[in-house]
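Inverse folding, one chain.
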């Protein structure tokens, strides 16, 4: 009987992959403003601070949704959560595409961010049910790969489409694609292999906790010290990557390295591709090594060094700049370790909740750093503009803004050393007590 058999991997990857499609779209939306900064600034008359806030509207609702998303994943199951998220994301994309002013554009970004917020946690929940425990970190890394693939589409391909058709038609096309993904998830995805007649990979004690109260689940997950630390750490990693590649990298490189927008967007996409490659490798190597903490720390230290070199030598040869950005992207893949690390730090019944909490910490970085860097740029703006009226910022302004990213990354690195190693083993009460 098939009930005694685990699902074939091709079926597991198909189910998981449909959830990954929503995450791909969410990541595309996450970094799309970085490619159309000039268009948005001109259409809505935005300063750097206002542009940073418009981009960050995505992150405001994304972060706000993370705790309820993790808890709802435990209550509703990923199928309903992912389907509804994709549907709302389609609506938000359409609102953003036709927005007559900054307020409607912000509303569209809010809807997009809050809805695609369900994607990553939903994928992790599916991975816990459809894949063996030993492949969980690999699946987490592949999730990052899918997401960054979406970010790559928001680089040169999007730039070329915007040049050909304009940013509004491109966004409307995104809305239609997202609607199709919503329908596919509802029809094909199932929460557990048992719904298809197969044996589930979910742990029994995880299943037994699925129906706890939301408030109780949130209170419970924060009783564990690692949760707090693993919530704060990834913001410095992801915040620096997405603040640069997702918003300020293109104007920085066009202004101070003399690149065309397409070339600058290609470099940002390459950074994100390196991130996509780093995620699965860090996840696999952490599983293979049997440790979480050392790789997490080494990745942050390498990123710190590279960012400092970029700031200290702002007139680097282009090949050196690209090399350092590739290293930053690859070693930023270490952030994927945090999800498996956190999952092993709490009882299995809290797996969805702790994934939501950690993902909230991930998005706190770009949510705060994108507008903060914009504020610093405006604060040091010397009044220069392009012929089209877009503000131009000095090298010193960018260095001051990017220093904020380095500060958070330094804090993240220090906090890693305060975590308790799990040695890639499921939660054990004797070694990982609350507190």
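Residues assigned per position:
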């Amino acid at each position: 009987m098939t009930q005694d058999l685990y699902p074939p991997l091709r079926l597991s990857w198909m189910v998981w992959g449909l959830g990954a499609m929503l995450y791909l779209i969410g990541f595309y939306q996450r970094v799309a403003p970085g490619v159309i900064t000039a268009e948005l600034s001109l259409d809505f008359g935005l300063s750097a601070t206002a542009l940073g806030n418009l981009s960050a509207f995505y992150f405001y609702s994304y972060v706000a949704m993370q705790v309820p998303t993790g808890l709802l994943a435990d209550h509703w199951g990923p199928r309903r959560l992912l389907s509804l998220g994709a549907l709302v994301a389609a609506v938000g994309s359409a609102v953003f595409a036709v927005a007559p002013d900054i307020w409607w554009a912000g509303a569209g970004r809010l809807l997009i961010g809050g809805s695609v917020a369900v994607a990553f946690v939903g994928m992790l929940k599916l991975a816990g049910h459809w894949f063996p425990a030993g492949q969980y970190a690999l699946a987490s890394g592949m999730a990052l790969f899918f997401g960054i693939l979406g970010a790559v589409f928001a680089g040169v391909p999007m730039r070329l489409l915007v040049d050909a058709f304009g940013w509004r038609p491109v966004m409307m096309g995104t809305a239609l694609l997202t609607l199709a993904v919503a329908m596919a998830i509802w029809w094909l995805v199932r929460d557990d292999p048992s719904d298809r007649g197969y044996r589930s990979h979910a742990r029994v004690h995880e299943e037994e906790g699925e129906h706890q109260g939301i408030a109780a689940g949130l209170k419970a997950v924060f009783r564990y010290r690692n949760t707090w630390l693993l919530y704060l750490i990834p913001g410095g990693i992801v915040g620096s990557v997405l603040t640069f590649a997702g918003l300020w990298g293109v104007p920085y490189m066009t202004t101070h390295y003399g690149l065309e927008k397409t070339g600058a967007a290609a470099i940002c996409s390459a950074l994100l591709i390196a991130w996509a490659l780093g995620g699965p490798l860090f996840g696999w190597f952490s599983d293979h090594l049997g440790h979480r903490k050392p790789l997490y720390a080494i990745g942050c230290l390498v990123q710190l060094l590279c960012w400092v070199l970029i700031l200290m030598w702002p007139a680097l040869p282009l090949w050196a700049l690209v090399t350092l950005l590739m290293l930053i992207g690859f070693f930023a893949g270490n952030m994927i370790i945090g999800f498996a690390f956190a999952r092993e730090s709490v009882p299995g019944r809290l797996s969805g909740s702790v994934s939501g909490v950690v993902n909230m910490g991930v998005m706190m970085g770009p949510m705060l750093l994108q507008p903060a860097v914009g504020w610093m740029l405006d604060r040091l703006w010397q009044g220069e503009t392009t012929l089209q009226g877009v503000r131009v910022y000095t090298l010193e302004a960018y260095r001051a803004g990017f220093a904020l990213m380095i500060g958070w990354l330094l804090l993240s690195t220090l906090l890693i050393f305060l975590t308790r190693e799990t040695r890639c083993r499921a939660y054990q009460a004797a070694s990982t007590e609350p507190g």
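The longest helix spans residues 261-289. The chain has one domain: 2-416.
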